[in-house]
Fold this protein.
Amino acid sequence: MLGEILTIAAALCWALGASLYKKSLLNVRPVTLNLFRSFPATLFAFLVLYLLGKWALLSELTLVSLAHIGIASLLVLAVGDILYFSGLKFVGVAKTVPIAYSYSIFVAVISIIFLEESLTAPILVGTVAVVSGIWLATSRTENKVGKKEHSKLGILAALGTSLCWACGVSIFKTILANTDPFILASVRMLFLLPVLGVFMLFPFGKKSSNKNLTRFDILTMFLSGLMAIGVGDTLYLFGLEIIKANVAAPLASTTPLFAAIIAILLLKEEVSKRVLVGTFFVTVGIMFLTLEQMFL
């Protein structure tokens, strides 16, 4: 029971993180948010690593493992998350989160093509549910200020996030065969920080966007990283140690539902019935894609 509680708590942390990201993006660029949220997450990851007594395992990493960690980390935490933040900025939490968290469908496709896994009935049902949910959540998207191109960009960004996360997670699966998950959780941040620092040198968007940061902006960015990457990922990993992965994964897939509820209650986003039904379909679809492993 403890493992299930920890995993659901992780999903809640990720949903809360998405809501904090949305608030931060009112005044900062996606690259800026990604950099600022990474500092507390990195400190938290290495602190947990130290407290668990796994510091010595860092010396066991090979150059090949480091290369794989670097590629996967940049796909997930740099490219994927920056696209994720762009989606949040343009179309909001309730639309971006269910699309981004549909990355399991891409993982399923990758596993079928490259790992030659069979297409089972649960995978087929889950795929149909996810695709239907995305269509419901994103069709007839409108923007209050009349910038329809922003809606299209936001949806494309969310889909790009899903693809990047899927590719990165697939590589992570290979890495975890020989690497401790807590080592992976901390080392991946070391690849992210310098790359984001370089990105900050380029003037994406308004040049003055980083000069007007308030204490509230900085605090929100720090809290979002600590909540989502730090606490959320750690709770999920602890949960995985207690319960099976094929039980933890569908529980973690409740993130879109938590995000939709938070978007309505805290962010006061206008969420239509189509978005709510779409979010439900996406969540059910993801659960089908993961739960089918329980019956093999």
